[in-house]
Amino acid sequence: MKKYTLKLTIFALMICITASQMHSAWFSNLTNRLSRILEDTALAVENPLELLRREQHGTITGTYQQCSDINQEKYLKLLLKTTVSKSNKKGTKDAEGRFLLRPESLHIFDLPAEILNKIVVEPIDTTRYFIENVFKQPSCSYALAILPGGILASSKGKGIELWSFKTGACQRTLGLSLFQQDGHTNSIMSLAAFSDGTLASGSSDRTVKIWNTTTGNCISTLRGHESIISSLVALPEDRLASGSWDNTVKIWDIKTGNCLHTLSRHVCTVTALAFLGDNLLASGSEDDTIHIWDISTGACINTIYAYQVTSLAYLGKNMLASGSTNGTIKVWDTTDGSCVKTFDAHMRGVTSLAALSDGTLVSASKSGSIKFWNFRNGICLNMLGGHTGEVTSLVACPSKNGRFFSASHDKTINTWRGMPIFGISCER
Fold it and tell me: What is the number of other CB atoms lying within 10 angstroms of the CB of residue 100?
């Protein structure tokens, strides 16, 4: 708290300097108010979304011009304290003396024209992420998947819960009802969603089940693996790839339930799968290899040597990211198997990777941290700390809405929302 207050005090001093240079009575008055406001943290709001909720729910009433002096101070405080960057971590491009603000938040305060005319809003080349929703569960979720219509699927023990993005409410459960006799008999470890809303789940019971998420019924059960199903990925033409602790990858036709190919080059647990397009599939394993497969023929066309792979994410344009138990992330050119970039990502092992729609790479670790990367130069753009336990899964929305999800051992699923950042500065 002392460190946070010190940062805010520095910002206040900068405003004071600007005010003296401009010889503006209003800015002088503002800085005097701000110095008093900084001492009171009772109304501190760190999340702009919370500010919007308070305004919409009537907790914040009236406008700036209608308020008394005391309420005007509260408005100014909310404007400043909800937009001040909490930290100056690497990759956050805070300009001197500027406050970070979502531009749509400015209208809430209904500031007088003479004040607005002296505020310059400038774009900053970064995005801040805030927790939009927290889904609490009685047990840890090991797998997440995005379904059409704004639905998040999460594993819950032997069953699946379907959550609404907008309301944060659980809309349906799969395999959890006493009347459903066709569910899994052991914990679900992986999920994969198809564009038509069909959902596949892989379990410790060595089976893969295909679900109709509209009716909640299990369509079919795929059998053939001899151990835990650790990873799934949906493929074109109603095909599904499954990776297992039995060291194999299987390609399935989900309509017929037939196994089309069994890929058996790995000599240890298959931990991750990624579809690369053009009928190519990548599989990562604890045996220090990533195999590139032609799923139409089942042939292995390339092998990449990477230390104890835990996760994979396809970045487009033949670029593949892999996470490892030693905390490193490597970016590979899948055409020749060369390593394009290596960066030390986490102090502990990488548990999950996801590629956002803008090309940013997101990584999670056993420590519970989530980081954002420019995979081309290995620079960390941001770091989040919304979990208190190991992050077990990440999944990103395919649309450009800046939303992704993280599940953790702390028995929560966080919905993260990305927002472009703008800076407020005083016109000189």
Answer: 22
| CA gap 185, 207 in Å, rounded | 9
Say which residues have a Cβ less than 8 Å from residue 268's Cβ, sequence separation at least 6: 247, 285, 286, 287
Q: How far apart are the first and last CA of the chain?
A: 32
What CATH number does the domain located at 131-421 have? 2.130.10.10
With contact defined as beta carbons under 8 Å apart, do 405 and 416 qualify?
yes
Q: What is the distance between the alpha carbons of residues 60 and 66, in angstroms, rounded to a whole number?
A: 12
Beta bridge partners of 333: 319, 338
Count of alpha carbons within 13 angstroms of residue 103, beta-carbon side: 9
Type of residue found at 422: F
Along the 428 residues of the chain, how does pLDDT read in single tens digits?
A: 555 555 555 555 555 555 444 444 544 454 444 433 333 322 333 343 444 444 444 333 333 344 444 444 444 444 444 443 333 333 333 333 334 444 444 454 455 555 555 554 444 455 667 777 888 887 889 999 999 988 999 998 899 999 988 777 888 889 876 556 678 999 999 999 999 999 999 999 999 999 999 988 999 999 999 999 999 999 999 999 999 999 999 999 999 999 999 999 999 999 999 999 999 999 999 999 999 999 999 999 999 999 999 999 999 999 999 999 999 999 999 999 999 999 898 989 999 999 988 888 999 999 899 998 888 888 888 888 888 889 999 999 887 666 899 999 999 998 888 765 544 443 43
Q: How many CA atoms lie within 13 A of 226 on its CB side?
A: 6
Structure tokens at 296: 């139409």
CA distance 8 to 397: 35
At residue 128, φ and ψ (nearest 5 deg) are -100, 145
Cβ partners under 8 Å of residue 205, min gap 6: 184, 185, 186
Domain boundaries, the chain: 2-127, 131-421
